[in-house]
Write a structure and sequence with these properties.
It comes from Funneliformis geosporum. This is 1791_t:CDS:1. With about 475 residues, the protein is mainly α. The chain folds into four domains: about 1-90 and about 130-150, no CATH class; about 95-125, no CATH class; about 155-250, no CATH class; about 250-470, no CATH class. About 60% of the residues lie in helices and about 0% in strands. It is globular, with a radius of gyration of 29 Å. The relative contact order is 0.06.
Length: about 475
């Protein structure tokens, strides 16, 4: 079982594009590089799930092991075509360059045997031709498991079938050959075109083909792919695919996103009692980069941004409660470092952008001990509600290590401006409601039924209560 120390090193290791210099200069990093988990994470982060297996084979016997192959096939994407090419490229017939064979043809071609062999050895080996028989066996075995015993030895070329599909409407021939175009495959294809900066040029052509094959509307296909693209494990730095899919759904963009977030259950899952006792791991419903993109696109006051904040707040509170239970830990047990950093950084980002706080958050925030949770509440959110001057305060997003670059198009900028213009200012009724909530806690804060409120929350509440009375 990996220790937290090892997990952190693996998380760092996978971000190093060319780690060879580090490995030869430090024994600890060299040991990390030998770990199968580290190698798999590095491959997938550097080359993506669609190309990780290809590059593992390219790196050869010094890189791939039985354990690496087993872990890699669990996380990467495998195509039948790749397995076909592997079988075709495996091995070199040494007989063809042996002195005996070359002498037999010497009467036809005058050739310097030693010079030819030296020249041949300098030629780059074809992909997959130099792996060991053991590694080939493991690759083929894992391939058969994943491909459900499809006929890997079939001479058909799956990529050629797909190319044929794009150029001809007679797609039924593909179906007859057993071609199955699942929604997962469609989303991966679109993601592949996004990475290659070809989605704008070929996206609609792809969608036409997908519609023909699946006999579904483009809107339904786009929405299903949007759900897949928003998965937590999808760590894309780009937002082009999101925009592409949202535009092709027959709903308003914000309604589409809210429906997708509902599917992923981006909402409060626990109440104030159950969140403290649950054994479940509370992580974000979708990737934090999606939340960052929604915030930048639609602004802090939109309904879809608020829906994202529900998921973020509860996840961040859960982290705080688990660390209170285990103060010696830096990250809750069983929560990956990536998930931890993502939750903390996106919480900071939403707070810095002044996303409105809901009254329902209060029951959770009063349980928190971390000032990273408490200070934004008392120094940003409540002063806005009560019309108080904001103190100089901003959370440094120190956890954020993989935030995507977000470029808003004019339409997205208009959406955000519209949400900000239409935002209803904090009215007297809302202010009065919050005053009653805080007053009730303030006057009963030392009663037994309020024993779960943390000292840090009490300290900040007393300070803010004095600010309210001093202002009014």
């Amino acid at each position: 079982m990996l220790t937290l120390y090892d997990e952190l090193r693996i998380e760092i290791f996978k971000h190093i594009p060319t780690p060879i210099n580090l490995l030869v200069s430090n024994r600890k990093w060299h040991n990390i590089s030998q770990d199968p988990h580290a190698r798999v994470e590095w491959l997938i982060f550097k080359y993506g799930r669609a190309h990780a297996i290809f590059h593992a084979v390219r790196l050869g016997n010094g890189f791939i092991t039985e354990k690496v192959i087993h872990l890699l096939f669990k996380k990467a994407i495998l195509s039948r075509y790749l397995m076909q090419r592997l079988l075709r490229h495996f091995g070199i017939d040494e007989k063809l360059i042996s002195p005996h064979y070359l002498k037999s043809v010497h009467h036809v071609i005058q050739i310097d045997l030693e010079r030819y062999r030296t020249y041949h050895k300098k030629l780059p080996l074809p992909w997959g031709s130099n792996i060991s028989l053991t590694n080939l066996t493991n690759l083929i075995t894992e391939g058969f498991k994943i491909l459900n015993n499809q006929n890997i030895l079939d001479q058909g070329n799956d990529m050629e079938y797909f190319r044929y599909l794009l150029g001809d409407s007679r797609f039924y021939q593909l179906i007859q050959r057993g071609f199955i175009l699942s929604l997962d495959v469609i989303e991966e294809i679109l993601h592949f075109f996004e990475l290659g900066h070809k989605l704008k040029a070929f996206g609609d052509l792809l969608m036409d083909s997908f519609q023909n094959i699946r006999n579904e509307s483009k809107s339904d296909i786009a929405f299903s792919c949007l759900i897949l693209a928003m998965r937590p494990e999808r760590n894309s730095k780009k937002n082009e695919l999101l925009v592409f899919l949202i535009k092709r759904v027959d709903k308003q963009p914000e309604e589409t996103l809210k429906a997708a977030l509902d599917y992923h259950k981006a909402e409060f899952k626990f109440d104030a009692e159950s969140i403290r006792t649950t054994k479940e791991i509370r992580s974000l419903a979708v990737n934090s980069n999606i939340y960052s993109w929604i915030l930048e696109t639609y602004g802090p006051d939109s309904e879809v941004t608020q829906k994202c904040f529900d998921d973020i707040v509860e996840s961040r509170i859960w982290i705080d409660l688990k660390l209170q239970e285990n103060p010696d830990r830096e990250i809750p047990e069983h929560l990956s470092p990536r998930s931890f950093y993502s939750i903390c950084s996106i919480y900071h980002e939403f707070c810095n952008h002044k996303v409105p706080i809901k009254a329902s958050y209060l029951q959770y925030i009063q349980l928190a001990k971390s000032y990273e949770i408490i200070h934004p509440f008392f120094k940003i959110s409540l002063p806005i509600i009560f019309g108080l001057q904001l103190e100089e305060f901003s959370l440094k997003v120190s956890y954020d290590y993989n935030k995507p670059e977000i470029i808003l198009n004019p339409r997205a900028q208009n959406n955000r401006q519209s949400n900000e213009i239409n935002n209803i200012p904090r009215n007297h009724a809302e202010r009065k409601y919050w005053f009653i909530l805080l007053e009730n806690i303030y006057h009963n804060i030392y009663q037994p039924n309020y024993a779960d409120i943390t000292e840090n929350f009490k300290e900040n509440l007393e300070y803010f209560w004095r600010r309210i009375h001093g202002h009014y």
